[in-house]
């Protein structure tokens, strides 16, 4: 059962002064945080629309289907997990990858401080941020997912949640208020296997957390499909489905145009173009069709060009320690 939220938590001393030294000295429980490396994500949850594009509760089921892929998402009483709730999943995946790279044993349980999660995602440590974290954990545990996407070479029939367990650990202050010490979660089997066995891990740009819902999905699609210096293009109707947008096509196109003009995606640029199709000449005796269909619209993603390294940049590369 998920923890209750009837009492407001107060930031504990552990949360306000998080350093490597204090982490080592904590003897009440072992922490997997802080996260020192990059934010990482598994490619499947980048490429496909598993999350609702909203900050408020989305109470309707989500569905994505192609010739080869099916995804069904059922809401809990608190709604479907949102693109903002996904920040918790990315944070946990990043902790997991960091442990793997350090040669440490990795289980499905992770313990972290809310303060470190807020630091990584660029959130304040306000009471509202804590409320949002509790709500996110509840939705991540309650949302049910079914997909035919295999993970770790294994297929599954049935439903799973992003988090099979989510709890907080707290102590009582002198006046009886709860003081949050840590968050404990258990990652689902499906994503755990994907990270451990498939190892299709990609880094996220830190500006990702500053993006709006559609911009986040566009960035993820660009990150998961662009190969090095090569971009990709997609029909706007297919892109609307891949993003997970429920807008009408004209509204979605308007949103894309605004984003393209603002040039707000980190690492990638977005362009919208119409494909002019040459109509075949009508055969003899055939009646010419009246009316015109609008030309197909294609959205093009391109990696941003990085400037060629000058002498100073080359020198800094030589002097930089190997990572």
Structure description:
This protein folds into two domains: 9-204, no CATH class; 212-278 and 294-305, Winged helix-like DNA-binding domain superfamily/Winged helix DNA-binding domain (Arc Repressor Mutant, subunit A, Orthogonal Bundle), CATH 1.10.10.10. 34% of the residues lie in helices and 20% in strands. It is built from eleven helices and twelve strands. The chain has helices at 13-16, 20-25, 43-47, 86-101, 114-121, 127-142, 189-198, 213-225, 236-243, 249-262, 311-319; strands spanning 9-11, 40-42, 62-65, 70-74, 109-112, 144-147, 163-172, 178-187, 201-203, 232-235, 268-274, 297-303. Strands 1, 5, 7 and 8 form a four-stranded mixed beta sheet that branches. It has a three-stranded antiparallel beta sheet with strand order 3-4-6, with no helix packed on it. The model is unreliable at 1-14, 16-28 and 310-323 (pLDDT under 50).
Largest beta-sheet characterization: 4 strands, mixed
Separation, N- and C-terminal Cα atoms: 42 Å
Question: Would you list the SSEs in sequence order as H and E?
Answer: EHHEHEEHEHHEEEHEHEHHEEH
Compute the number of helices.
Answer: 11
How would you state the average pLDDT, rounded? Answer: 85
Q: Roughly how many Å is the radius of gyration?
A: 23 Å
The parts where pLDDT drops under 50 for at least 5 residues are 1-14, 16-28, 310-323
Indicate the structural class: alpha+beta
Q: In percent, how helical is the residue content?
A: 25-40%
């Amino acid at each position: 059962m998920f923890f209750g939220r009837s009492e407001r938590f107060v930031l504990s001393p552990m949360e306000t002064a998080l350093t490597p030294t204090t982490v080592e000295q904590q003897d009440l429980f072992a922490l997997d945080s802080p996260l020192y490396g990059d934010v990482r994500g598994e490619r499947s949850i980048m490429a496909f629309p598993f999350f609702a594009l909203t900050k408020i509760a989305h109470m309707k089921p989500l569905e994505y289907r192609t010739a080869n892929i099916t995804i069904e998402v059922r809401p809990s009483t608190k709604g479907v997990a949102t693109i903002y709730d996904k920040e918790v999943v990315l944070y946990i995946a990043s902790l997991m990858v960091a442990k793997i790279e350090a040669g440490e044993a990795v289980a499905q349980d992770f313990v972290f401080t809310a303060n470190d999660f807020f630091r990584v995602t660029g959130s304040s440590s306000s009471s509202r941020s804590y409320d949002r974290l509790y709500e996110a954990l509840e939705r991540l545990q309650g949302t049910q997912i079914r997909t035919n996407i295999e993970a770790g070479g294994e297929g599954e029939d049935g439903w799973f949640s992003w988090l099979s367990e989510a709890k907080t650990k707290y102590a009582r202050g002198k006046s009886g208020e709860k003081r949050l010490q840590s968050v404990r979660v258990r990652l689902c089997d499906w994503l755990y296997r994907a990270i451990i066995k498939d190892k299709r891990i990609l880094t996220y740009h830190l500006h990702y957390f500053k993006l709006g819902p559609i911009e986040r999905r566009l960035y993820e699609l660009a990150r998961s499909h662009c190969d090095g210096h090569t971009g990709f293009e997609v029909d706007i109707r297919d892109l609307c489905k891949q993003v997970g947008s429920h807008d009408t096509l004209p509204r979605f196109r308007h949103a894309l145009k605004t984003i393209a003009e603002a040039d707000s995606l980190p690492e990638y640029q977005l362009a919208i173009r119409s494909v002019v199709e040459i109509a075949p000449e009508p055969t003899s005796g055939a009646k010419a069709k009246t009316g015109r269909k609008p030309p197909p619209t294609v959205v093009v993603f391109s990696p941003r060009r990085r400037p060629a390294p000058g002498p100073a940049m080359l020198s800094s590369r030589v002097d930089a320690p190997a990572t």
